[in-house]
Amino acid sequence: MLRQKKQEEKRKNKKAFKNEKHAKKQLREKQKQECKVRNAQLIAEEEKQFQTYAKDVIETARKGQRNTSILHKASKVGIGGGRGPVFGVIRPSYQVQDKSGVQLPSYVRRKKLDVTTYMQESRKRLGFTG
Fold first, then answer.
1. C or N: which end of the chain has fewer Cβ atoms within 10 Å?
2. Is the separation of the CB atoms in 77 and 50 below 8 Å?
């Protein structure tokens, strides 16, 4: 009888411990999610403030007849000074895998290359028929 009571009490303690552990885990997950949402809001607000500031600086430079191309480049959307594509709100920078650690250049073209027009000439030169 005494043994059964002890075993029953042990089971209740284990169950209470598991429930408490699960509740703590859920609370941590909820706090993480709230933190992510708050960070996203802060990032969006900071980006908005920066774009407003950048627009004012560019307008002032334009009125002073200064070169604004560098300012336009710096005011691109996205956190980070990278030359890579924007992922969400981050513009990553990619470094070279050697001891210099220099940022890789951006070779993005604004227009497509016209490769198809030269294909027929290449085929003739290489000896393909048809």
1. C
2. no
pLDDT (tens digit, 9 = 90+) per residue, 89-107?
677 777 777 887 777 776 6
| Cβ–Cβ under 8 Å, residues 58 and 69 | no
CB-count burial class (<10 Å; 0-12, 13-18, 19+) for 17: exposed
Residue ranges for the chain with pLDDT beneath 50: none
Q: Where are the beta strands (DSSP E) in 22-120?
A: none
Sign of CA dihedral 35, 39, 45, 49: positive
Q: Which residues contact 105 (CB under 8 A, 6 or more apart)?
A: 83
Residue 56 confidence (pLDDT): 93
Total-model pTM: 0.52
